[in-house]
Specification:
Radius of gyration: 26 Å
Shape: globular
Mean pLDDT: 81
Helix content: over 70%
Structural class: mainly alpha
Number of domains: 1
Largest sheet: none
Oligomer: single chain
Strand content: under 5%
Number of strands: 0
Length: 353
């Protein structure tokens, strides 16, 4: 009977415990430092996206600080244009909110009987189990003005930190790369590190630019389809579909719920209510199964379970910002692993594919 090597078991257990403690510590630090780290991480991801544009500008003999300033100004202009395009039709929907609310109340009237029946069953179960009516505690809500006064300075500080981080990252990323490479004393290690930097920037930039082009096409298709269905403000919902599509899986689900609400608020028939989300889900399915794989290619494909896990963790930590950087962070990890891990004879390691 083979003997059990308890020392080896204890050593492996201690290593796993150290790894688990390290992971928990990193997650806790990310959540605790969200206000500082979230805008910095987002700035790095956006900076990697616009890195090739900055390189092309610098090839014309323009200094890096002017190039970075031009890239940040271009990004702000794009955000301003998108915000204006959202604000005009959205203001119309805000004016229609009272009538939409009345329409929703009428649609939900048929559910009152079911809700009342469920409430009666709950009361009977509580009585049978000897439980009295639950105690209600009313907590006074904080006014909207107090919330704005409290969160506005922090939000503005995060925006300024994001813009400053984006500018300095784009302006100094080449210097940072050379400084990091100078610390590699081994020529082979230096070559691997250089390959890693180039691979990270190329993969993240290609992914975000490609996904942006795909999302624009999806938004145009959704707008055209909703216009054909005579849905109000089709351009607004098309732009929203394109924006939410950056957060894969979760974004399309949210968009389907939004279009269901639009159908419920603007149509009197079941077909009219369900047709807008159904058409959107059909277009999203075509985009996800055919267009995006054709644009990105096999080399940019990641394991769907790993992607879903990354999105869930990052949204839990940082909300919408985390949802946006979830896939780019996986691409960064994948690029690093491809360049530092030993490669099998059949090709590079495909740990996240």
């Amino acid at each position: 009977m083979p003997s059990v090597d308890f020392e080896a078991i204890l050593a492996n257990t201690s290593r796993l415990a150290i790894i688990a403690i390290g992971v928990i510590t990193v997650i806790a630090a990310l959540e605790y430092a969200q206000m500082i780290l979230a805008p910095i991480f987002l700035a790095v991801v956006i900076g990697l996206m616009f890195g090739p544009l900055s390189d092309r500008i610098e090839q014309l003999g323009i200094p890096s600080w002017i190039s970075a300033l031009g890239v940040v100004a271009t990004f702000l202009m794009l955000i301003a244009v998108a915000g204006t395009a959202f604000a005009v039709p959205l203001s119309d929907w805000l004016d229609r909110l009272p009538s939409i609310w009345e329409r929703l109340q009428l649609e939900l009237t048929s559910w009152k009987g079911i809700v009342a029946s469920i409430g009666g069953m709950q009361e009977k179960l509580r009585s049978a189990m000897g439980q009295g009516p639950s105690m209600k505690v009313d907590v006074e809500d904080t006014s909207a003005v107090e919330s704005v006064v409290f969160f506005a300075p922090a939000f503005m500080a995060q925006i300024l930190l994001f813009l400053a981080s984006m500018y300095f990252f784009i302006a100094t990323r080449n210097d940072f790369r050379e400084a990091a490479l100078s610390l590699c004393l081994n020529p082979r290690l230096r070559q691997s590190a250089r390959r890693t930097f180039e691979d990270v920037e190329a993969r993240v930039s290609r992914y975000l630019l490609s996904i942006t082009a795909v999302n624009i096409l999806l938004g145009l298709a959704v707008s055209a389809a909703l216009f054909a269905l005579d849905v109000p403000s089709p351009l607004l919902w098309g732009m929203l579909a394109g924006a939410l599509n950056y957060v894969i899986y979760i974004g399309p689900a949210v968009m389907a719920l939004v279009l269901t609400g639009v159908g419920l608020a603007t149509s009197d028939t079941t077909l009219g209510i369900l047709l807008p989300p159904a058409v959107y889900l059909g277009l999203n399915l075509l985009e996800a199964q055919f267009l995006t794989p054709a644009v990105l290619g096999r080399t940019m494909t990641l394991n769907p379970f790993v992607v879903l896990l990354s999105i869930a963790i990052w949204i839990w930590l940082w909300g919408p910002v985390g949802g946006f950087i979830a896939v780019p962070s996986l691409l960064i990890v994948d690029a690093v692993l491809r360049n530092i891990m030993p490669r099998p004879p059949e090709g590079p390691a495909q740990l996240l594919v």
